[in-house]
Structure formats: C-alpha cells, structure tokens
Amino acid sequence: MALPKKLFTLNLFACALLASQLAQADEPWTNQEWADNAWYLGVGAGRANTSIDKDRIIRSLMDNGASSVTFGSNERDTAFKLFMGKQMNRYFAIEAGYFDLGKFGFNATTTPPGVINGEVGFRGFNLDLVGQLPLTERFSLLGRVGANYTRADAHFSGNRLFALTDPNPTEKKLNPKVGVGLEYKFTQALAMRGEAERYRVNDAVHNRGDVDFYSVSLVYKFGKPAYARPVAYVASPVPVMQQDPIPVTVAQSPPPPPRPQPVSEKITFSAETLFDFDKSVVKPPGKQALDDLLNKLQGMNTEVMITVGHTDSVGSDAYNQKLSIRRAEAVKAYLVSKGIDATRVYTEGKGETQPIADNKTSDGRSKNRRVTVEVVGSRR
After folding, report:
1. Closest alpha carbon to 268 in 319, 211, 307
2. What pLDDT is attached to residue 137?
3. CATH 2.40.160.20 correct for 3-13+31-221
C-alpha cells in the first residue's frame, strides 16, 4: 500500500474516533484508577527530517575523477507510526510500535559527464519507556527513551557507482531513540499528542545518522467502565401517622403491631479519612469507615442514600466542583460494591459552595473537606 493511502486510512480512523469521544467530553472524570492502569492504542503522522552527508559524497566523486559536481538532495518526507502501550501508573507507561520514516535521496551530476542517484528508506519497530508529568487535569509533559530496530532499504543508479557491488543494499540495526512532547486529554479515554523524536539509524552503506520525526498523534485508552449519569432525587413525603379511633366496646382487641418509623440519618466523613490528597479513590481507612456505617444500618429498610462531596476554597471553582463529584461517585461505587442497590444511591457535588467552617484557617479548611452520606428509610 502506498504511503498516501495509508495516511488517508489512518486519518479516517482518527476522525471517527475523535468525533465519538468528543461527545463524552463533559462527563466527570470518575475513573482515575482505571486511567492510571489502562491499555491504549495510538496513531500518529507528521514530518521526518534528516541530513545527507553532501561533503563526503562530493569528495568521493572528486577522488574518482570528477572535476566538478552539481549536487541536489531531498531530506524531508512524510512519516507515520502506530503504537500500543500499557499505563503502569499516573507517571509511566511502556509503549511498543511500528514506524515508517519515509524516504530520503540525492542526485549528483559530474564533469566529465556522469550521474549518480541514491535513495534510502527507514521503517521498523520500537520499544520505549514513556514518562508523563501532569501539569493540569488535561495537560501533561511527555518524555521517552527507548530502542528502535530499523530496516534501511537503499537504491543507487547512474554511471558513477564506482566500487559498489550491490546497488540495492539493505541493513537492519538496533539503535537508541529519544523524544519529548505535550499531551492534551479530551476525555479520560482520548488524548492528542504533539512530539519530537530522534531515531538513530544506519543507512545500509556503513554510515550512521539521525532522523528527526515531528508528529501529531491520537491516543485511545480502551476498556473504560460505563458512566451512569446521576438522577435527580426528589424525596417522597414522610407519611403522616393516623391515630386509631377509640374503641367503644368494653372488651378491647389487641393493639396492632407498631408501624415502621420513618428515619433520616446524615453522617459526615472527613476527606482525609476517605481519600489521599487531591485523589478520588477510597483508601483502606475510608473503606473501614464506610463498612462501619453499613453495619449501623443493619435492620433498616433503606429507601435512598445520598452522597454529597464538599471541598475547601483552595483551587479554582471548576476544579473543586469536579473533585467533589468524583469523590461522591467514588463513595457510591464502594457502597454499591457492598451490596447496596445502585438505583437507590444518588450523588451530588457542592464544591466549595457550602462551607461549615472558616476557609481562612487550616482547621476550617480541614472541616470543609468532607463527604456526607444521608440515609432515608424506616426501622423495623
């Protein structure tokens, strides 16, 4: 398949993937633990540049009888790559891929009359360690170091080939590669990267050099758990107890069994108990606190549970709002994992809008970082 056809197919795939994911861009980011351990696929394209050793070629032609040389070269071409990776944690990933860096060439005309043309193409496989440094929720710096196993296919033509015994040499070689870049996340599953990479290569005629690849890529993490949007909850009215009429007969019948009494309980957990700093994954002490709550609810007919996340005023309003939603969703997920019906648990995020203490002091901010769980039901 010709390179333009490959790029056209990759572009169609990338556009379809981008369109499908942008529709989910407004979903809250509630699956950080999945994102930090997911497998992903990627496709990228861009421009590859190299430097042809013009002086060495002209010197060789002059040493073999040429009195003058007119030299031209093509040191740029379109390149692409396909890759697959595994996120090890928030900061590191292992990535393997296939790349085609394109073809580069030169033509030289000599006096006395003569000509030599040369062309070489590079393609192969790579294995990299990728480092990621989050700058914001969506932007991250990238750095990579790894190895590339590259096949160089060269072709020479003309009447000034001198001692070349093979006009179509091929060479395969393992060499290092490095790169830097920037990543922007559209959603937790889809991101775009801009990168600059340097591949060390051999050109099939016993020379080594570098090819620089400047690319734009789409990266898709697969296996994301489905997101269930929270349903607005409207509390049902508390039933009014009706007083039984006074019996008129002397012989009274046994009183009816007591009706279940409606109850509403609200429990507040500090954020430090449930989560690590700036995280939304329930940690072991937080799970124990939620287990204690579930034990207290034994013997209660639970109609609905409402988890509400709150933050202090440190950070932007938008970030605190999203963090409070993620934490409320994380508490819901744990309660559901312990057998609570998911349709009876509702979540809200209040961000920094409902403080219970002064945000100007450390103690006040600590009190404001909390998650409340309200339980509505009846005691048997």
Report:
1. 307
2. 86
3. yes
